[in-house]
Every structure is written in C-alpha cells, then in structure tokens.
Amino acid sequence: MFRIGQEEINAVTRVIESKQLFKVNGGPLQECAHLREELQQAFGTEHAIVMTSGHAALISGLIGMGIGPGDEVIVPGYTYIATAMAVVAAGAMPVIAEINETLTLDVADVERKITSRTKAVIPVHIMGFPTDMKGLMELAEKYNIMVLEDACQADGGKFGGKRLGTIGDVGALSFNYYKLITCGEGGALFTDDHTIYERALIYHDSSAVAFFGDQLSDVQTPVFCGQEFRTNEIQASILRVQLGRMDGIIADNHKNRNKLIEALDGKFKIAPSNDWEGDCATTLALQFDTEEEARKVKAIVGGTIPLDTGKHVYPNWTAIMEKRGALHPAMDPFKMEANKDIVPDYKADMCPKTLDILGRTLYVPIHPDMTEEEITQKAADLKAALEA
Predict the structure, then answer these.
(1) How far is Cα 156 from Cα 160, in angstroms, rounded to an integer?
(2) What is the DSSP letter of 339?
(3) How many domains does the chain have?
C-alpha cells in the first residue's frame, strides 16, 4: 500500500450511511457501476469486471477464453503461485518457461515450449516490470494462441503507451494490500472481446449475476455454473479513490527511482527493461555477476533477493510441483483423462536461467513519498556496501 487517507474514509462512510452495501442495489451511489466505467475509461478497454482478487480475474479470464482439460498454458517460472494455480483451476496444464534479465518471460523460451496443445500464454508483469508484449503478441499471432496478461503487480503500468492488462486478449489486475492501488483485497478483468466478457461475467458470479439487476440484459451466452467472486460497494468506493491516485503514485515512483539511479553514479548494473517509462517503478532491480556478490550487498543494506521470495519461484509451488490439483482425485486436472498425455515432468532445476537471474538480483524498494535525504542515504549505503 502506498497512499491512503481521509478520502477513502469518507468514501466508506458515504456507502455505510447509504445502507446499500450490495453490488446491485437501488441506491443513489452505485459505486460498483461507477468503478467499472472509470476503469474502462482509465485503461481504455471495452469491458471491465471488478471482482474479489487478481487470482479470481485470472481464472475467470481463462474460463472466458475457453481454456480447459487437454490444453496447455505457458507461464513464467517467476510469478506468484496463483498464476499457475489459475491454470489448474481451469482444468488445464501449466507449462513453465524461463525468464530473462528483465525478470519477465523469455519470448524465445516461450516459443520453444509451444506444442500443438498450447492454447494460451500468461505473461506476468512481475514487480511492475513490463513483459516484452510486442515480441509476445507477434509470437501469439504466429502460433494462433491467446494471451492472458497477469498485471496483478503492475496496476497502471504501460507497454508502448498502452496500459498493461489491455494488450492481450484478457488482462487481470489485483488490488490487495501489497499492490500499487488497493482496497485490501480485490481484482479486475479487462477484455475487448465480447464473448470472453460474457463468459467471464457469468463465471465470476454465476450464483447472482442472473438474479440481481439487469446484468445479463445484453448477454447471449447461456448461464452456466461458475464461482462467486463478486465485489461490493465498500471495496468499490475505496478503489474509486485509489484509482484517482494511481498515476500520481507512478509518476512520483519514477521521479524517486530516477533520482536514486543518478545518485548511484553508474556503479551498479541496472536490470534492463522492456519499457523503462511504462515500468511502475515500485522497485529498482540491481544485477550482479554472482549470487554471492548480491548477497553480500544485501547483508549490508537490506533489500530482497527474488530467489528468496518463496511461492514466487516455481520450485516452491508445492501443489503444482507435486501435482496435486484438487482434493478429490476425480476433480484433479493432473489425473484427468484429457490431460494424460500432457502432464509436465516438473523438476526443481528445469529453468536454470531463471534461478540464476533471481539469485544474482537485488531489489531496492521505491516509494512515492521518499525524501531527498532518504534517497541520498540509500545511494550512499549501496555504494559503500559495493566497495566493502
């Protein structure tokens, strides 16, 4: 969480005083409806669905794309486990690909992993770092596969001037406590494809979407059984305020990140970026020749070695690596007849390039409200640690 205050308090108070907390109501506020419209405008997309989490948006996106048993979906080896779990939730098989020094999907390795069963790829804009969407979209067109952008850690970021999450067939954002804008927990799905939108709309709230309001007034897809990922007026009211803060947070992150880089006097290798200006600038990634060097600097100044971030690194995706896709074996995609010939042979060392890059990278957090003194001190500490 970066910035939150009295405006959010006022928004929540307004909803509570209205006594209309449900998403679909006859009250005057209609926070959920307004938020959907404001997201569509801010992100330049035809459709937006606000829901309970980024994970919910990823699953709903896959269902909307028609992904299911018998299909393979390529994911990076560096992303939160929720990305791979969303693929399994849809009944498909996650195929794990390498990242490159931008900390995002290696497009060349994605191409190596494509088979006749590959139906989609999920680029993850981890830590707000944009994936090479130009290369990936060209690859997707070449092989006729769909693209679901996991922009859950990149709210408001851009690639080529276009918002992350709106370049592929579908995009997913997260608004949990740790994201650039937040309502504690929440997510959103974006798409310009009306069929995908209809399916995702039904799936994300099948127990209510047909029974409250006119949510299906223009929907041609027959209602089917799905999940309940419905948001509410309180969360939406907070997010409307947060959405207004988003671009300012990113602009101040950029300013402070650039000041820190300048103060480092060229003494560090900065991780390359697929779009330096589109990066959310929540993190400065420093890269070293060896993991030992990165860890020595970390021991002095702190920060994070991404290899140490648990469920963000594929060998630590226990349920995936050990192929336990559901409690009931009949519901487990790893045991489904449709997947019998495509169950991956996961190994802890199957993406050595990913592990190497993550081990010799050090993350330095950037905050929009960092002072000049804090930036100067951080740069001095990093340079002193490097010399030591």
Answers:
(1) 13
(2) G
(3) 1
R_g over Cα of the chain: 21
Cα separation values, 198 from 15, 169, 225, Å: 28, 14, 13
Residue 54 lies in a domain: yes
How far apart CA 189 and CA 64 sit, in angstroms, is: 10
Task: Answer whether residue 357 is part of any domain.
Answer: no
**Residue 66: domain span:** 6-243
174 phi and psi angles, rounded to 5 deg:
-125, 145
Taking the C-alpha atoms of residue 201 and residue 195, their distance in angstroms, rounded to an integer, is: 10
Residue type, 11: A
In a domain, 347, yes or no: no
Any idea what the CATH number is for the domain that residue 68 is in?
3.40.640.10
In the DSSP assignment, the letter for residue 177 is T
DSSP 265: T
Please tell me the distance from the alpha carbon of residue 109 to that of residue 343, in angstroms, as a whole number: 19
Taking the C-alpha atoms of residue 365 and residue 343, their distance in angstroms, rounded to an integer, is: 38
pLDDT in tens, 93-142: 999 999 999 999 999 999 999 999 999 999 999 999 999 999 999 999 99
- How far are the Cα atoms of 29, 52, 120 from residue 214, in angstroms, in the given order? 17, 21, 32
What SS3 state is found at 320?
helix
C-beta atoms surrounding 2 within 10 Å: 20
List of the chain residues with pLDDT < 70: none
- 313-340 residue pLDDT tens: 999 999 999 999 999 999 999 999 999 9
- Measured in degrees and rounded to the nearest 5, phi and psi for residue 62 equal -65, -45
| Residues contacting 365, CB < 8 A, separation 6+ | 282, 283, 303, 304
3-state secondary structure of 211: coil
* 162: alpha, beta or left? (left if phi > 0; alpha if psi -120 to 50): beta
> According to the model, what pLDDT value does residue 27 have?
87
Region class of 108: left (phi > 0), else alpha (psi between -120 and 50), else beta: alpha
Residue with tokens 């500490």: 381
Q: How many CB atoms lie within 10 A of CB 305?
A: 17
Kindly list the distances between the CA atom of residue 93 and the CA atoms of 17, 77, 164, 203, 335, in Å, as whole numbers in the listed order: 47, 14, 25, 20, 11
Sheet strands side by side (includes 283-287): 269-270, 283-287, 361-365
Pick the closest to residue 57 from 48, 67, 44, 69 (CA basis).
48
Determine, yes or no, domain membership for 187: yes
Structure tokens at 148: 């679901």
Q: What is the pLDDT of residue 210?
A: 85
